[in-house]
Design brief:
Oligomer: single chain
Strand content: 5-15%
Radius of gyration: 38 Å
Number of helices: 30
Largest sheet: 3 strands, mixed
Structural class: mainly alpha
Distance between the termini: 109 Å
Helix content: 55-70%
């Protein structure tokens, strides 16, 4: 058996050799060949894989290059994206509360300062512009010519902030420049009355010292012809004419029993007494009992006249329709009807000396009974009446200019403010002088802002955005169903013919034209009080020009550095000052989806106002129409009311809050749909106009580059850009008051407007019945 197994063991399973036709292969060669075949196969396999990988790698590189080419890498785009992402609160579902989704991060990244109650995007832009203006004022002038408006502006500001010189001169400007105009001062010289003339003193007070005393003149608009101006002799403009700046008329009650009013009157007299003592000290009047007695007479005289004026003002009756020809009065007639006490022709001829003012010039007198009672008081046969009027006029001047003197005068004024309001926060010298510079040199400062901080490309580019929005409105008007053909045509004609003031007036680029405005104004860097009097004369020249020329539609109602945007129906215009054309609302380099969402929706809002229910009340020339429907046809007006009612019903169901009031009490604020409907329609329509304009822009000029890694689509970024123009941070103590006064707060405005837009729901995939995708919507256009 062993031999058998042995034989079996020796027997090859595979023969030693295999014959293929004439070739004979040994076993070893077969193994090597198999290995070679396997290696060859693997080579082909790896070659294929390598070739495939090379193609894929090349495709990946190509795709990456395309993506990079379509991605924005420039600073404006990346800055815009970073800003937008910073304000988001991604923990909020955009379909539940889009405003909180878009702006929820604002309060975290923009906390309120201790002295702030409110902050928002536009306010931040405004504050930035104020800082820029201060830097302009404090920089050395680029044009050193003495006639340059820049030099005059900066010298005025420097003289105002020069506390050292103010401390040196103290009350001296009053003796040199004021008291001679008033015929002296009773406290310094009790013999002043011999040559005192009320009409002469009143002319100097009203015109040269530029303050309202006894009455308030003004070159107002003629309400029957808005292209003309007419002199108005009124009881008040901003402040009551001829009473204390801090004193409401009710505070002058005779023999008051209310402890609050008693304290106010006592504090006010203390203020008057303190200022009078400072003036007497600086005039080097001997400090004796006689001086104290004269100061008491001065205080009591001035307060008594103010008290009588307040009483007459409260009792004054408004004359119905004072602008009608029948109710206008000539200056000669006004002088006669008021007892010839005040020469109204002489007063107005002195103020408006560049116009041909005469006794036959007609004026508007809204409160004729006030002037009658005023002149009756003045003409009382009393030996002391002239002294009382003189002391009254002197005090009106002193209170007006007390902040423009040395520190002790300023402090006296502040003390009165603290006594009255209990607050110790003040502007400070720098802010006060900045305010005056803006008041007296608004054009010069605006021109410097434009030339220093405004990029001309912004004006060019935003003009294109405006044209796109106008075209979107024209398309919408043509396709809407509630306007008839005649109304549609009028609406499109009005929109096309309207004026769009963007950026700044063209003349501001011509420095010679800016300088010419201030040509007659002399400024001395060492004489602040004299500069104020020079500014008064500039005001006088401006009033004369307004009265002479009437309507001037080349003027701008905003300064170039303002961050407002508005429709001005009277002149049929849209105003977009340079101040709002900056990041984050608009710069020419930011992606169009964001700029159309931000500035585009604001433009759409106000352009729509040109032709909406409010815009219909002003015709194509800017003239007001008495009819409630204006230039709309009866059919259009009727159809629109059905649209409007849907909006009224929608907003009437909205309640905002609850808000903390005090002592744990909470209150809500309901939206008044009837009052808010026109604004709600304008906001929603403005968003749609901007969205349509943006999609048309995309079709014609291609999509914007997309920031790397941004997870939101351009359409989504459009709506984010819109919402983020309304981001705010507000102290809870102000929330209730703000919402009640504004009717609808920012969150309500944004969310309810977007709820009405299917375009929004589609962009964010919001489906009914989520809060941002209601089952029923109002149809606007």
């Amino acid at each position: 058996m062993a031999d058998q197994f042995q034989t079996f063991d020796k027997a090859p399973i595979v023969p030693d050799t295999i014959t293929f036709r004439a070739w004979r292969f040994g076993f070893r060669e077969m193994i090597l060949g198999a290995i070679a075949l396997i290696l060859l196969f693997m080579c082909f396999l790896f070659a294929g894989l390598f070739g495939s990988s090379t193609v894929q790698l090349q495709e990946a590189r190509t795709s990456a290059q395309v993506a990079m080419a379509r991605s924005c890498k420039d600073s404006p785009c990346l800055k815009t994206t970073a800003h937008a992402m910073e304000l988001l609160n991604i923990s909020v579902n955009p379909c539940d509360n889009f405003f909180q989704f878009a702006c929820g991060g604002y309060t975290v990244t923009n906390p309120l300062n201790p002295d702030q109650l409110h902050d928002n995007i536009l306010r931040q832009m405004y504050d930035l512009n104020q800082d820029r203006l201060v830097a302009i004022l404090e920089a050395s002038p680029e044009n050193y010519m003495t006639w340059s408006s820049e030099v005059k502006l900066k010298d005025f500001y420097a003289s105002c902030t020069d506390d050292f010189t103010k401390e040196q001169v103290k009350g001296k400007p009053l003796f040199d420049k004021v008291f001679p105009l008033l015929g002296g001062w009773y406290v310094k010289d009790a013999t002043w009355s011999a040559s005192w003339d009320l009409n002469i003193a009143l002319k100097h007070v009203q015109t040269d010292l530029w303050l309202d005393a006894m009455y308030a003149p003004w070159p107002g608009w003629d309400q029957y012809n808005w292209k003309n101006r007419i002199i108005s002799v009124n009881v008040m403009q901003i402040y009551p004419a001829g009473t204390g700046y801090y004193m409401r008329w009710a505070y002058y009650k005779e023999n008051p029993t209310d402890p609050k009013i008693q304290k106010i009157q006592t504090d006010y007299k203390t203020f008057m007494r303190t200022v009078a003592n400072l003036v007497a000290r600086d005039a080097k009047v001997a400090k004796d009992q006689a001086l104290g007695d004269r100061i008491e007479v001065f205080v009591n005289d001035a307060f008594t006249i103010e008290q009588k004026i307040a009483k007459m003002a409260l009792a004054a009756e408004y004359q119905g329709d004072p602008y009608s020809e029948a109710n206008k009065q000539t200056l000669d007639d006004l002088t006669r009807t008021t007892g010839n006490v005040i020469d109204w022709t002489a007063q107005m001829a002195y103020l408006f000396d560049e116009n041909r003012v005469s006794g036959s010039t007609k004026v508007v007198v809204p409160y004729p009974t006030y002037l009658t009672n005023l002149t009756a008081m003045i003409s009382i046969p009393c030996n002391s009446v002239h002294r009382m009027l003189h002391n009254y006029l002197t005090w009106r001047v002193l209170e007006t200019y007390v902040q423009d003197l040395s520190w002790e005068y300023v402090h006296a004024n502040r003390q009165m403010y603290v006594d009255l309001y209990g607050r110790v926060e003040f502007l400070g010298t720098q802010r006060y002088c900045f305010m005056l510079a803006k008041r007296y040199f608004d054009v010069a400062l605006g021109a410097l802002y434009v030339n220093t901080h405004f990029d001309e490309k912004n004006k060019v580019k935003v003009t294109e955005v405006t044209e796109s929005v106008k075209q979107a409105l024209e398309d919408m008007i043509q396709t809407n169903t509630w306007m008839d053909a005649d109304t549609k045509k009028y609406a499109m004609d009005k929109m096309r013919g309207s004026t769009y003031k963007i950026g700044y007036p063209d003349f501001m680029k011509d420095q010679s034209k800016v300088d010419a405005i201030y040509q007659q104004m002399s400024i001395n860097v060492s004489d602040f009080f004299g500069n104020l009097l020079a500014a008064n004369q500039q005001h006088k020249r401006e009033w004369n020009r307004e009265l002479r020329e009437g309507e001037d539609r080349s003027q701008w109602i905003f300064n170039t550095y303002d961050t407002n945007l508005a429709v001005y129906w009277y002149w049929d215009e849209i105003i977009v000052p340079a101040g709002i054309l900056q990041f984050p609302v608009y710069t020419h380099g930011m992606p169009h989806y964001y700029s159309f969402g931000a500035i585009g929706t604001l433009l759409g809002h106000f352009v729509h106002h040109l032709v909406d229910e409010r815009g219909a009340r002003w015709d194509k020339g800017g003239d007001y129409m008495d009819s409630e429907r204006g230039w709309w046809s009866n059919l259009t007006y009727t159809n629109y009311n059905a649209v409007r009612q849907c909006v009224v019903d929608l907003y009437n169901n909205v309640t905002q809050g609850p808000y903390d009031i005090y002592n744990g009490e909470k209150r809500t604020v309901a939206v008044n749909g009837g009052k808010y409907a026109y604004e709600a329609i304008a906001i929603t329509t403005g968003i749609r106009l901007a969205y349509n304009a943006y999609t048309a822009w995309q079709r014609s000029k291609g999509a914007d580059p997309h920031p790397p890694g941004l997870q939101y689509t351009p359409e989504q970024m459009f709506f984010i850009g819109h919402a983020q123009t309304y981001c705010y941070n507000r102290d809870p103590s102000l929330d209730y008051t703000y919402t009640r006064l504004r009717n609808a707060n920012e969150e309500t405005r944004v969310n309810l407007a977007l709820q009405e837009l299917p375009e929004f729901s589609k962009a964010f995939g919001c489906s009914a019945p989520s809060k941002m995708a209601p089952t029923q919507r109002c149809t606007y256009y």
